[in-house]
Write a structure and sequence with these properties.
With 317 residues, the protein is α/β, with parallel strands linked by helices. The chain is 40% helix and 11% strand. It contains twelve helices and seven strands. The N and C termini lie close together (10 Å).
Length: 317
């Protein structure tokens, strides 16, 4: 998807840019279940090579890091710009990881301040919050691409994302933002294998969605609530917890822990530290969810992407 400088308009929630050199149609002559990792990697590289200069949305997670590594391999580091959107919902560790990845790959990296909190639809958190967040980010990135002479913007969606509620993918599709990993049918375990191949330290980094995902649908997103979650999760991380979520339920912090975290919190001393640290973040009560860590637990009732747009979704359609 190439930037068309005459057709794109940065209207909030609706702008798009149209391809002037056509949209790459990835060959699907190999069934997904039989395609090798090499096949999929080559498909992603072929998609990226259709574009001369690329802006890559770099979130600090493993998916966007692998996308950046493939973009460098496809067109060279001097023709790639990594951009991270920074706001109250971005975790401190994610920004640090994004900077490290860009340094490792010798890619120019810029941080843009995003203002999704200014969007009523984002703050209202009605279930389509991610759409408004990604609309803000992609409007900025496409505008930057147009001004700087880049040919396309790409982001790190993967096939697994279709198994969860991802309203932000609609914003990407509207703006013709590339999703090369998704189009190549790459799944998380394959992305991690490519991260190891590229020598990326965060190859085993747990999924790290924005902090707003810790706030239940229907509860307003505010900077104060985001700061509570940020401080509480930072405290748990410092205590040795690795994969977890601090869900915000007003006065109550509901902790979702992976099996390792559940074992860790059985220690009375650790449990006391957790309770004290989370309360110091602004919560009155601290609870541990008996169902443990699970991605998207605050998304019941939001249709999955695979249900809404089908299993063969391509960012080029």
């Amino acid at each position: 998807m190439v930037v068309s400088r005459s057709e794109w308009t940065p209207e909030a929630g609706g702008g798009s840019f149209s391809p002037s050199r056509g949209i790459l149609k990835i060959e699907r002559n190999v069934a997904e279940n039989h395609a090798s990792l090499t096949d999929k990697k080559q498909a992603a590289l072929a998609a990226l090579r259709q574009h001369g200069k690329l802006v890559v949305a770099l979130s600090g997670g493993v998916d966007s890091a692998v996308l950046l590594a493939l973009a460098v391999e496809a067109v060279g580091p001097e023709r790639v710009l990594a951009v991270t959107g920074r706001s109250a919902s971005l975790g401190d560790d994610d920004l640090a990881d994004a900077r490290e990845v860009a340094r490792h790959l010798s890619v120019r990296h810029e941080v843009l301040e995003t203002r999704e909190m200014d969007r009523e639809g984002y703050r209202a958190n009605r279930g389509d919050r991610c759409y408004h967040c990604r609309s803000e980010l992609f409007d900025l990135l496409v505008g930057l691409a147009l001004r700087r002479g880049f040919d396309a913007v790409a982001y790190g969606a993967i096939l697994d994302d279709l198994d969860d509620a991802r309203p932000g993918m609609k914003a990407a599709s509207e703006r013709r933002v590339l999703a090369p990993l998704l189009d190549a049918r790459l799944r998380k375990d394959e992305v991690r294998a490519l991260a190891e191949e590229a020598g990326l330290r965060l190859k085993d980094k747990p999924a790290s969605p924005c902090l707003s995902s810790r706030i239940p649908v229907g509860t307003e997103v505010t900077e104060g609530r985001l700061d509570q979650v940020r401080r509480a999760e930072s405290a748990l991380r410092s205590l040795g917890f690795r994969q977890f979520r601090v869900r915000h339920h007003g006065d109550v912090a509901r902790l979702e822990l992976d099996p390792e975290g559940e074992r860790l919190i059985l220690d009375p001393g650790v449990r006391a530290q957790v309770a004290a640290s989370v309360r110091a973040s602004g919560f009155r009560f601290v609870t541990v969810d008996l169902e443990g860590y699970r991605s998207g637990s605050l998304n019941p009732g939001i249709p999955l992407l695979s249900q809404r747009i089908g299993p063969n979704r391509s960012s080029g359609q």
